[in-house]
Amino acid sequence: MKRPTIADVARRAGVSKGAVSYALNGQPGVSEATRQRILAIAAEIGFSPSSAARALSGATAKAVGLALCRPARILGIEPFFMELISGVESELSARSYALTLQVVTDQEAEIAVYRRWWAERRVDGVFVCDLRTDDRRVPALEELQLPAVVIGGPGHTGALASVWSDDAAALVETVEYLVALGHRRIARVGGLPSLLHTEIRTDAFTDVCRRLGLDEASTVWSDYTGEEGARATRRLLSSARRPTAVIYDNDVMAIAGLSVAQEMGLAVPGDLSIVAWDDSPLCQLVHPPLTALGRDIPAYGAHAARQLLAVIAGEEVTGAQDETAHLTPRGSTAPPRAT
Amino acid sequence: MKRPTIADVARRAGVSKGAVSYALNGQPGVSEATRQRILAIAAEIGFSPSSAARALSGATAKAVGLALCRPARILGIEPFFMELISGVESELSARSYALTLQVVTDQEAEIAVYRRWWAERRVDGVFVCDLRTDDRRVPALEELQLPAVVIGGPGHTGALASVWSDDAAALVETVEYLVALGHRRIARVGGLPSLLHTEIRTDAFTDVCRRLGLDEASTVWSDYTGEEGARATRRLLSSARRPTAVIYDNDVMAIAGLSVAQEMGLAVPGDLSIVAWDDSPLCQLVHPPLTALGRDIPAYGAHAARQLLAVIAGEEVTGAQDETAHLTPRGSTAPPRAT
DNA sequence: CCCGTACGCTGAACCGCACAAGTGACGAGC
DNA sequence: GCTCGTCACTTGTGCGGTTCAGCGTACGGG
Q1: Residue A251 in 3-state DSSP?
Q2: Which nucleotide is nearest to A34 (CA to C1')?
Q3: Alpha-carbon distance A39 to A15, whole Å?
Q4: Which helix (H) or strand (E) holds B309?
Q5: CB B160 within 8 A of CB B142
Q6: Please, which residues have CB within 8 angstroms of residue B322's CB and are 6 or more apart in sequence?
Q7: A243-261, pLDDT tens digit by residue?
Q8: Cis? peptide before A336, omega within 30° of 0
Q9: Any strand D atom closer than 7 Å to A21 CB
Q10: I need a labelling partner for B170 at 20 to 30 A (CA). Which of A47, A69, A187, B87 fits?
Q11: A283-304 exposure pattern, b = at least 16 Cβ within 10 A, e = fewer
Q12: Interface test with B, best of A82, A124, A283 (most B CBs within 10 A)
């Protein structure tokens, strides 16, 4: 089956290629009657303009890129990225933009991918995830002048547009909630310390604990995997004055922590309260169901996609705040048992 | 920053565009010395040929497509797709092929996407997931003559290449294992009945149960979500002669089932043994850890990617069997308590 | 009545690359 | 010494679009 070209449409409509181009792109230069005729013929023979030819003649590639820098097993276990992609996609496909995905091993590889995409004119813009402080990707993208939206922040995004969520506020809300329940010894199992949002959460945790006079607040770091979450929990619960509540930076670690607590004979929430960041359906599957900080990730992705399309369209776009995660109390949090 | 073109390289090397093209594509027509000089200059100024121009002049788009037909929340909760994508990607990026992703709502939309990708010459080939019996996508792709690899089967793939795993064998192994433990009343919570692999597993389950003389074997269907898995489990465990072992078609439903059992006061594995299909890290996070049927999903994806690249290269490719899932016994299975 | 102009369309020049055909130099063979 | 072949390039063409200049026609105003 031969692919139809614009010339085929033009021939059948008895007009020139140019006229077809105007008609299909909604540009002036053809009468309404002719436009309708051309549109009908194009639909009839199933014509879609070649993305290559269109990209070549100066227009856009109608594609955006997303490079993911995580090993396969973490990528799989965290619902975050897949939900984000769903949301991004919903916005992109409505505008018939394609999403090009690439999994990379480190920041340098990611920058190389951006550079290649740019040189190949493969994408019109990119999303940047897992922002770090002093992220080398930011200046690299600025230098390339490749439209980009950072999914994360605030801050450290240079001149790039960004979409961010106020993790500090969410963390403060959580700590205040736990304190209101009566907790005084609260610990936190954080994600990778090199990521900006981990740092933001850590700072917020330190601040709010100081403000509320909780001097036994401590953060330990992990890497989002269940194994590390379990190890960190074991360490916390083995200490002399073990915490009565733990906040985990993702749901997988929280579930692992719950298992460890139960295995050590601690009742949840009686002896230990648990809060998970990221409220996936998993949190409701375990016993007790986990109190979690959730937000609409697909909507976050859609928001980022709208931002990127705006940047590509040449609009002046800066940072945009997305919804703040909200706490959904479930069975894993309660007042600490009187000691 | 202006993007370098082949003309820029040619000018700096003091040769024609044609010579540069030959040099970069490893074709004869330039001396080795000149080739090296051109390569060095191209690397120096960061030149990559425009994918659009390359695709336009008859070559390939150097991109393949993957359309996913699942709602966002299921896509997120199942590690399967993300792991598959990682594996696919590892193979593609080594050959500098790009992966274009699209989330669609139904089969018709998916076929429309294939048709558009084909007309736009956006991809050189596609992956087909979630195969059904009498899948309309198969004839559609055959008609378009768009290279494709079905991830699933065996059978019902028409003339398309495919990569499949012997789910029937894995299921038989599982049932035999449970029977060896002493179970006689085994139930199964299946996935979406319209999917081919669900049907294959159901048939295998029915067959092996008949062969082993288990006449109380029953399958109930679900949709891979925790809620549905919990509901199905509740139904099974409430019946007069409740099963002593349940096999779940994915890990999320198995975890939900475990919760339901514990909530109903049944001991796992004492009163009920549980086996999960898909062995993600989640299975080891719960208590007791779940006996699971696992396999290397990234490797599966990589296998599929190699198949697709072979089809694109014009090689004669048919079905290829991938690794069979193997049972990893953990704490959720044991002999049934004597009644 | 004639000119200016808006409309509707055509023809051609690009975009950046691959590849076929052409060219000049040089060496081998008779 | 002349031809022929090969090598190492160059030139030119076309892929399928977009876009701009140009051009005939109809129409309205002075």
Answers
A1: helix
A2: C8
A3: 13
A4: helix B297-312
A5: yes
A6: B163, B164, B165, B295, B299, B300, B303
A7: 999 999 999 999 999 999 9
A8: no
A9: yes
A10: B87
A11: bbbbbbbbbbbbbbbbbbbbbb
A12: A82
Count Cβ atoms below 10 Å from residue A32 Cβ, excluding itself: 8
Q: Tell me which amino acid residue B121 is.
A: R
Task: List strands edge to edge, sheet with B273-277.
Answer: B218-221, B186-190, B245-248, B273-277, B291-294, B326-328
Note the CA–C1' distance, A116 to C24, in angstroms.
Answer: 38
Size of interface A-B (CB pairs under 8 A): 199
Q: Cβ distance A250 to A222 under 8 Å? A: no
Residue B161 pLDDT: 96
The type of residue at B160 is L
**pLDDT tens column, B195-236:** 999 999 999 999 999 999 997 888 999 999 999 999 999 999
Query: pLDDT, tens digit, for every residue of A251-306?
Result: 999 999 999 999 899 999 999 999 999 998 889 988 899 999 999 999 999 999 99
List the single residue in A with minimal CA-CA distance to B45.
A119
The answer to whether residue A73 neighbours chain B at the CB level (below 8 Å) is yes
Residue closest to C6 C1′ by Cα: A29
CA B109 vs CA A27, A176, A257, A301, B41: distances in Å: 28, 47, 42, 21, 45
Q: How far is CA A275 from CA A46, A211, A248, in A?
A: 53, 20, 6
With contacts defined as CB-CB under 8 Å, which chain A residues touch B284? Answer: 226
Least Cα separation, residue B71 to chain A (angstroms): 8
Q: CA-CA distance, B109 to B140, in Å (whole number)?
A: 12
* A251 reaches B (C-beta below 8 A): no
The pTM score is 0.93
Crossing angle for the helix pair A6-13 and A32-44, nearest 10 degrees?
A: 120
